[in-house]
Amino acid sequence: MIKEAVSAHSPFNDCSLSVFAKGSYANNTNVKTDSDVDIVVQCHDAEYWDEGTKGAHTTFTPYAGIWTPTKLREELGAALRAKFPGQVDSSGSTAFAIDSSTARVDADVVPCFDYKYYFASGGSREGTRIFRKDGVGFENYPVQHLENGRSKNTSTGTSFKRAVRILKRVENVMVDEGVHREVPSYFVECLVYNCPDEILNRSTWTETIGGVLVHVWEELQGEEPPESDQRWMEVNDIKYLFHVAQKWTRADGRDFAKAAWNYLGFEG
Predict the structure, then answer these.
(1) Quick one: which of 54, 59, 117, 157 has the fewest CB in 10 Å?
(2) C-alpha 61: how far from its chain's center?
(3) How high is the pLDDT of residue 36?
(4) Does 122 lie in the same domain as 179?
(5) 246 exposure class (CB count in 10 Å sphere: 0-12, 13-18, 19+)
(6) Considering only CA atoms, which of 118, 103, 197, 210 is closest in space to residue 159?
(7) Which residue has the higher pLDDT, 29 or 257?
(8) What percent of the chain is modeled with pLDDT above 90?
(9) Do 150 and 198 reside in the same domain of the chain?
């Protein structure tokens, strides 16, 4: 239905756009109580880029079209309000929230642009650039997230995504019962992603979930290591899981693991 809203909005007629799902719904790690869908509306007319060293991106023409972050947000908001009158919440810093009373499920709709990082070696990496309403931009890598999640799930005999869903349900119940504060679902997915396949391939779910919680607790002790190959990554394997601009910390990971361990009644 988001695609229908975009297609029906005439100002988008001459704009190259892609509309697709990302996040836990697309990656099959969502649970019923976290059933909102993250939808990307990506504009291809303008490309944002960075380069590893000056001159790595040698051939480009500055964009002179109309599709600025403000213009894209304004037109997407108008398209969504026309399709879902009275059900669009635009108060968030990045996404438009669509109430499920007029859509199949709750949806967060994010406008973004093409993004490419050019390496000094001559290669490049593609992603998306999202702009907050205050103009600050940041990068996301939904394609790499999807591919790496699928690869991890295959290498663990589908245990990776099942373990993520189990721990998301545990997190939801702990929040409902006042046992622990809310933890972002993507953070839970990343914590499980950084666990070795050996743990996720154990013979029982008691061994698997217990092993995941022990691994998170033990490996996140202390400060973030300076060596890049020892730092934990997001599922996209591009962005570090812990850094100063992140929504969570190593302590948040330890606290969640400890709370889940105690709540599930593990001993030791």
Answers:
(1) 59
(2) 31
(3) 67
(4) no
(5) middle
(6) 197
(7) 257
(8) 81
(9) yes
